[in-house]
Amino acid sequence: MFCGGCLRDNALVTALRARDHNVLMIPLYLPLTLDEPDQTAGTPTFYNGINVYLEQKYKLFRKGPRWLHDLVASPRLLRMLSKRAVKTRPTEVGDLTLSMLEGESGNQSRELDLLIEYLQMQPEKPDVVVLSNALMMGMVRKLRRELDVPVVVTLQGEDWFVNSLPDAFRDRCWQLMVHRAQEVDMFVSPSQYYAAEMMRYLHVEPERMRIVHNGISLEGYMQAAVAPHPPSLGYFARMCEEKGLGLLVDTFIELKRRDRVPHFKLRVGGGCGPGDEPYVEELKSKMRKAKCLKDAEFYPNLSRGDKLAFFRQLTVFCTPAMYGESFGLYLIEAMAAGIPAVQPNTAAFPEIFETIGGGTLAEPNPVALASAIEPFLRDPNGAREYGERVRANTHNHFGVELMAERMVAVYEEASDGWRAAREAARRETDDGGLATDENPEPAANA
Description:
The protein is 48% helix and 9% strand. It is built from 19 helices and 10 strands. β6, α13 and β7 form a beta-alpha-beta unit. The longest helix has 31 residues, at 400-430. The chain is globular, with a radius of gyration of 23 Å.
């Protein structure tokens, strides 16, 4: 599956390496599925999905010989399974989520030891370790202690996942995340909206939270030479309920019912795995009953080149995610291609539109969204002119190079704070203070 966080991290590492930073990117669970050159090439996959699952379910496997763990972690087997992978459903992994957050005392502690062993074997010690989301915070304590480095955690939609866990695990996971969050040196949120949400959930003070908007590689994002004919309404994200595909289908049906824009199309692109296909078929059946399926087209699992071509077919864009989107890379992709966007007046969408200086917000229901989308469909040339303005602003504010520059500043701040805390602890010991640990732990907000 295409993962927005993986795409963001891969683009970030590409930009950091272009700036001559020495970056090691380590894949977890399964090999990454990307539409740009893979920056993890040649790096083993840790916490591989098979071992993680078997360690959770079988106590004997946790104590099994290393050769057995290595056998089921073979790259060939992981690649084969990744092609058949389906979306992880929170309702099915409450126990596993809790165990991962328990870190060195969880069922996957062996995986953490192997990761640290690998990092300690690298020719250079890192200045900072970055974890790509807060569900990995179980690693933080041991990473800091064994590698003697600060840990930065980026945030990306964890609240929806944890809140969707079964009742027996949800509160326990939040409590453990609050505890583990106190060990993190710095958090990075992709939006002000999500920073406020996660400071509330994790009890994190503002001094340890930074805001860095996500960025994308802008190469190839351009408008079509002429406005598409017939006009089309586009969606691009995982084809699932959470991203609002069902709401957009209802909006499409409402627009067809009004019949003010003859022959316009609905074009749906994005990830669609085996777990998503039944939902897509339900939506197609709904459109068939409304007698408008003939005007709907689906483009699953596009390559980068096909994705760029897909955007050039659109008149207006809407991916009405309703679960509290922390950012939404798909929105930046569409607007970078010069496509006007209509989004629900929720979550991070108002913040992104304000930064760009363009975009239309509407109440999250089919009638309101249809009324906001319709003027663009009725005037494709006007939509194209509007899209060109937002395209320029998107390129100015959401390129991966700007994200990399701001992330480096965060990494340097965390590293400087860590060294200052270490020096303060050393001076306290030298002056006859109370510190007796040979490797005293600096304050979490260093």
